[in-house]
Amino acid sequence: MNKQELIKDIEKLLNSYSGQKITAINPDLLEFMDENTLKEIINSLLTQKDNAVKDNEVWLTQFKKTE
To answer: Which of the four, 8, 17, 19, 44, has the lowest number of CB atoms within 10 Å?
Structure first.
């Protein structure tokens, strides 16, 4: 995967949150970053998203009817 594709993936992750403004990353700003750094950013965003889902699950289970 090249740097441009990684930048596009970062944009997609940032824009996957509903109700948020569309984020566009100027590729020139990330030009100094290598592919590993961009992949670390993607992994960090995925972890944050996963943690948010888990937190929401915990919160939602409060309202689940128990039999």
So the answer is: 19
Q: At which residue do the structure tokens 């009817």 appear?
A: 65
pTM: 0.67
Q: How far apart are CA 49 and CA 55, in angstroms?
A: 10
Three-state helix/strand/coil letters over the chain? CCHHHHHHHHHHHHCCCCCCCCCCCCHHHHCCCCHHHHHHHHHHHHHHHHHHHHHHHHHHHCCCCCC
Q: Residues 7-40: pLDDT tens digits? A: 889 889 888 876 778 888 887 877 788 899 999 9
Q: Rounded to whole angstroms, how far apart are CA atoms 56 and 18?
A: 14
